[in-house]
Amino acid sequence: MIEEPTNTQRKIIHIDMDAFYASVEQRDFPEYRGKPIVVGGKPDSRGVVATASYEARVYGIKSAMSCNKAYQLCPTAIFVYPRFDAYVTVSKGIREIFSRYTDLIEPLSLDEAYLDVTEDKLGIGSAIDIARSIKDAIKNELNLTASAGVSINKFVAKIASDMNKPDGLTFIGPSKIKAFMEKLPVEKFFGIGKVTAARMKAMQINTGADLKKLREEQLVAQFGKSGRFYYKVVRGIDERPVRANRASKSVGAEDTLKEDTNDAGIMHSLLQEISVTVADRLQKHQLKGKTVTLKIKFADFRQITRSRSFATTINESNIIYKEAIKLLDEAEIGTTEVRLLGITLSRFYDDLPFDTREVSQLSFDF
C-alpha cells in the first residue's frame, strides 16, 4: 500500500516530460515514431544534442553530446533541428493542465515544473492521485508522456521523477526518505556536478550516508555555502517553497561555429544573427533586461563569460549586438580559436508592469 504524507507536511510533485523535444517531433511526424531521433542539428554540423528519443538513447546518445559523436554512435539516427515555437506551444498546454490542480506552479524549463498540491483546487487530497491525473491528462490531451515524482519536499520529488522513466510515477514518503538519502550517490545531489563529485569521492564521500558523517562546519569549509544545503538535504530537510511567480532568469541563444576560428568578421556575423534571435524572443515574451552577457567557448572547450549592465532595460537587437561586440573585443582572445558564441539578457522587470512578466526560463540553443 502506498503511504501518503501527513497533513502537516507539504505535498510536492515534480513533473518531467519524457524526452520532450524528441517526443514532440515523434508525435507531430508519424514517420519518426519508433525510430532514433536526435534533436539539435545535422550530424556533420558542430551542433550539440538538445535531446534524443529513447530509441536513440540505447546507443549511448545523451543531451549536450556533439551531433557528430551522436552520428558515430548511431549512423541510422534521424537528425532534426529544434522547433522551439512548437515546444513553447506544447509547454503552455502542459501548464494549463497543471493549473487545474494548483496555482503553486514553479516551472524550471519548458518541460519540467514543481507543483505544491498541499491544498489542491479540486479537493482530491492525494498527491499521488493528482500526479496520476496530470499524467493521464498530458497523455490523453497532448499525446505525450511525463514522469512524476511525489514527496514532501522539492529535492526528493525531483530525484523521484527520474527513477522510473519514461512514463513513471514514484512516491517517496516520509518514512522512506532517511534510507533513500543515505543510499543516494553524491552525484545525484542538487548542486553537485562532476568536479564536486570527484572531490567528494577523493574524500571517500560516495553516498549520502558518507556525506552524513560530516558536521555542517566541515561541509561549509570544504564546499562553501552549498555545504549547508548538503547538511540539511541529506537529512531529508529541504525548506525551499514552490515559487508560483518565479521569474525568468535569462533569455538567450548560442551557436557553434562551423569551424573553430579567431576571425573577427566571422564572429561578428554570428553575433549579429544571435542578437536578432535573442531580441525576437525577448519581444515575443514582452521582456526587457538590463544585463547583456557574452559566452565564449574555445576550441579546447574552456569557457568564459563577459557581462555589462545598462541603466535601463533593453530588448533591441542592434543594441544587444553592439554590446556583444564590445564584450568580445574586451575579452582579448587574440589568436585563440573560438568554438561557440552565445548572448544572454537578464535582470528583467525593473521597468515592466507585473502582468507582462514571464514565469518560465527561456534560454535555447539554435
Write up this protein:
- Helix content is 37%, strand content 22%.
- The chain is an alpha+beta fold and 366 residues long.
- Among the domains are: 50 residues, DNA polymerase, domain 1; 114 residues, Dna Ligase, domain 1 (2-Layer Sandwich), CATH 3.30.1490.100.
- The protein has a 5-stranded mixed beta sheet. The chain has a 5-stranded mixed beta sheet with strand order 11-10-12-9-13, with helices on one face. The protein has a 3-stranded mixed beta sheet with strand order 3-2-4.
- Strand 5 and strand 6 form a beta hairpin.
- Helix 4 crosses helix 5 and helix 10 crosses helix 11.
- The relative contact order is 0.11.
- The N terminus and C terminus are likely disordered.
How do the strands and helices of this protein lay out in sequence?
Blueprint: E1 12-17, H1 20-28, E2 37-39, E3 51-52, H2 54-57, H3 67-73, E4 78-80, H4 84-99, E5 105-109, E6 112-116, H5 127-142, E7 146-151, H6 154-161, E8 169-171, H7 174-183, H8 194-202, H9 208-212, H10 216-223, H11 226-233, E9 250-261, H12 264-284, E10 289-298, E11 303-314, H13 317-331, E12 338-348, E13 362-363
Parallel strand pairs: 2-4, 7-8, 9-13
Antiparallel strand pairs: 1-6, 1-7, 2-3, 5-6, 9-12, 10-11, 10-12
Helix pairs in contact: 4-5, 10-11, 12-13
InterPro entries: DNA/RNA_pol_sf (IPR043502), DNA_pol_Y-fam_lit_finger_sf (IPR036775), DNA_pol_Y-fam_little_finger (IPR017961), DNA_polymerase-Y (IPR050116), DNApol_IV (IPR022880), PolY_HhH_motif (IPR024728), Rev_trsase/Diguanyl_cyclase (IPR043128), UmuC (IPR001126)
GO cellular component, one term: cytosol
Binding site for Mg(2+): 16, 111
